[in-house]
Structures are given as C-alpha cells and as structure tokens.
Design brief:
The structure holds two protein chains of two kinds. Chain A is mainly beta. Chain A has no helices and twelve strands. The chains are: A mainly beta, B mainly beta.
Chain lengths: 114, 112
C-alpha cells in the first residue's frame, strides 16, 4: 500500500539556520503530496502541497518540490525562526478516484533555539 | 470562514465505557475523515465519510464506528473503551482529494 518515510528527529537548529526534512514515498500512480505542521496542543495545519511531478509547493518561507524520479518531497526553509519549532508531517493521498485518505510519515520534531 | 470544530476538547473515561466525539466540518466540505494520533503509532486513518456514506475505513476494530449527518457534521463512537484507546482523535474535512485536508484541534481522550 501507499506509505511515507520521513527523516527521524528530533532536529535542533539555531535561529536563521537552514532546515531540510527528507521525505520519500511509495505509491502506485501519482499521489498528491502534502506537508503538515503541528504545534503543541493543536491539530495539524496544512503547510503546503503539490499535486503533480515537478510542482513546487511553498508557504511561509517553506518549499518542497514533487520529484517523481526520486519519489521524494523534501521540505526546506532557508532561515528558520523560533516560531518554526513544531512537528512536521509528510503525507500523501491515494491515487484512486475519490480517495481522500491521508497516509502520514512518522513526523519530525524540530526545535529552533534563539 | 470557520474552521473544523471538534467537541469536546478533552475527555476522561473509564475502561468499558463508550464515548462519542463530534466534528463540524468547514462549510461546503462534504468529506469528513477521522484519525487517531498516539506517540507509538503516529497518525492512523480511522474512516472517511462523504454525503452520509462511509467510503473508506482503516484497520481498526468494530468498536470504532462513525456516522455523518445530512449537514456534513460527523460523529465517531468508541464502545467498550480500552486503555489503549487513549489518544488524540483528529477530524479533518476536505473539499477535493488534491486540495488537502483541514484539521480540527482534536479531542484528547484519556481512558483510565
């Protein structure tokens, strides 16, 4: 079945450092890919998405490019802030029509120090 | 535009009891999905409803059930609670399968 593997954490960075979280997926066909962020005590927020190969999703300084050849969707941010401290989840939806089910990676905890 | 609303936010139940959680989706979203989040298993899909019909179901025992009403609001029920059911239960609504799901803040269920 569909699955997502993402970089294990935790990741600790200093403010203004570069952040990369690796994400690879296994799926038949062409899934849609997502990054979600979860702040302590809250639900998940959709951070960005990409629906086809070579699409680049971006939001709040974060970017990720849908790479079909490497089945990857790595998340990057050039200069992190303390407020970026959170858990980040890579996810995909299935490739069947009307398949809204999300398959998530295990999550990567990111801590940014001032 | 109001987001996804889940009630209650916190619940404490005793083993063997049952519980009902509620979710109001974003207006216009007809798909509602439920997920269980635990430290050990991560985020696991429970089920998805669309126009009052269950379209997809995860690998959970029959004690977990749900329903959707004509206004798209959804409830999930867990009967005969076990300690292992302690988790954050997240509801999400979607407009399309490629648009992404929008999550509520979750219901934190503790079974004692």
């Amino acid at each position: 079945g569909d699955s997502v593997t993402q970089m294990e954490g935790p990741v600790t960075l200093s403010e203004e450092a570069f952040l990369t979280i690796n994400c690879t997926y296994t799926a038949t066909g062409y899934p849609s890919l997502f990054w979600y962020v979860q702040y302590p005590g809250e639900g998940l927020q959709l951070l960005l998405k990409a629906t086809k190969a070579d699409d680049k999703g971006s939001n709040k300084g974060f970017e990720a490019t849908y790479r079909k050849e490497t089945t990857s969707f790595h998340l990057e941010k050039g200069s992190v802030q303390v407020s970026d401290s959170a858990v980040y989840f890579c996810a995909l939806t299935g490739t069947l029509l009307n398949d809204y089910k999300l398959s998530f990676g295990a999550g990567t905890t990111v801590t940014v120090r001032a | 535009k109001a987001g996804v609303t889940q009630t209650p936010r916190y619940l404490i139940k005793t083993r063997g009891q049952q519980v009902t959680l509620s979710c109001s989706p974003i207006s216009g979203h007809r798909s509602v999905s439920w997920y269980q989040q635990t430290p050990g298993q991560g985020l696991q899909f429970l089920f998805e409803y669309f126009s009052e019909t269950q379209r997809n179901k995860g690998n959970f025992p029959g004690r977990f059930s749900g329903r959707q009403f004509s206004n798209s609001r959804s409830e999930m029920n867990v009967s005969t609670l076990e300690l292992g059911d302690s988790a954050l239960y997240l509801c999400a609504s979607s407009l399309t399968e490629t648009g992404g799901a929008f999550f509520g803040q979750g219901t934190r269920l503790t079974v004692v």
